Every structure is written in C-alpha cells, then in structure tokens.
Amino acid sequence: MERMTGEPAKNAPRALRADAWRNHERIIAAATALLAEHPGASMEELTLATGLGRTTVYRHFHTREHLVAEVYRTSFAGARRVFADAGLDRCPAEELLARAVAAGLAAVDAYPVLINGPGLDISVGGRLNPDYTDCLDVLARAMGRAQEAGLLDPALPCRWLANSLLDDCAGVVLFAADLRACDREPLPLVLEAFRRAWGRRGGS
C-alpha cells in the first residue's frame, strides 16, 4: 500500500515539469514565428499567438524583453548546430562555399527570426551579442578556410564575411517564392552573388 500511494506523488512532479516544458517550447515556437513576420510585436500579441493563457505565458516570461531574448538565444543556438552539422571544417575546399550557403539557407529557413537582421538585437552595449558571436563562429571559421584556399578576399574579416553570407541567405529566403517564380533557385543565386562580391578578385 505504501508503494501504491507513493508512486503517484513521485510521478506527479514529472508530469507537471513535462507539461511546463511543452508550454515553454510552445511559447518559443509561437513567438519565433510571429517575430519573424512582425519584429515589433507586443507582449499581448505574442501571448495571443501562443494560444495559452496570459498567466501561463507570464509564468515563463515576465517581460517581452525576456521572451524576445530567449527566442533569439534559441535561434542562434539552433543555427549554430546547423552550421556545425554541415561539415564545413572537413569538406573539400571546392565544396566549402556551396555548403556554407546551403547551411545558411537551412538555418534561416529553420529559424526565421534570423531574417530580421539577422536579429533584433545582435549588439549589447555596443558589442556583439555573445549568443550571436557563438552562432557565427563555425561559419566564420569556414570563411577563413575559404580565404586560405583562395576563394575569398583574404583582407576581409572572417566574421564579417559570415555575417554577410547570413544576411544574403536571409534576403533570399524572404523572397524565395518570388525568385522561384522567375526560375531562380536560392542556393546558386546566393553562391554566385557572394563569390562575385567577396571573391579574391570580387568587386566592391
């Protein structure tokens, strides 16, 4: 009998934690989607988008700033995983830029808030947001490899090149439907433009 009465009490907190985690993920997903379309969405609008009660949302995020910061932290971390999984540190040099562009497009497609800049607030106190810096690290190293291989202008900062590539990918994802209507696929378009702009003999 003691075992039977003890188990529900033991399992109840786990169920509650799982339910709370699902709500947390639901809030982040809804806020991510809304901020991608409306970067200035208010806390009320973000709360409505979740389909959850105001009390539930505020239990997880007390302010809009807190929620937006978590949306971007999650998106930057997710994008970093996309870049890490792309094999940019070990692929042949001739595949490097194409893989980097493909990873950039995949990251923006998976985390659409990156379209905004790529971020509402990539700077904190005049310095780059450390979450965004971490996000760019893998891509920046790939840009360095491309410079060593003679594919990109060696005089340009690697992190700046990584940010430029991500910006290009964001613009293409935003207008992907329009481009396909003109029979232009996003990946070769970004790759061609990036090489032309920042290749070793690229224009200004």
TrEMBL record:
Q: What is this protein called?
A: HTH tetR-type domain-containing protein
| Gene3D superfamilies reported in the protein's UniProt record | Tetracycline Repressor, domain 2
Taxonomically, the superkingdom here is Bacteria
The keyword DNA-binding belongs to this UniProt entry's keyword annotation: yes
UniProt xrefs under SUPFAM superfamilies? Homeodomain-like (SSF46689)
Q: Under the GO molecular function aspect, what terms does this record hold?
A: DNA-binding transcription factor activity; transcription cis-regulatory region binding
Q: Which residue range or ranges hold the HTH tetR-type domain? A: 21-79
UniProt keyword annotation of Coiled coil present: no
Q: Which PANTHER family match?
A: HTH-TYPE TRANSCRIPTIONAL REGULATOR BETI, HTH-TYPE TRANSCRIPTIONAL REGULATOR RUTR
Q: Which Pfam family is one of those matched by this entry?
A: TetR_N
Q: Which residues bind DNA?
A: 42-61
The entry's keywords: DNA-binding, Transcription, Transcription regulation
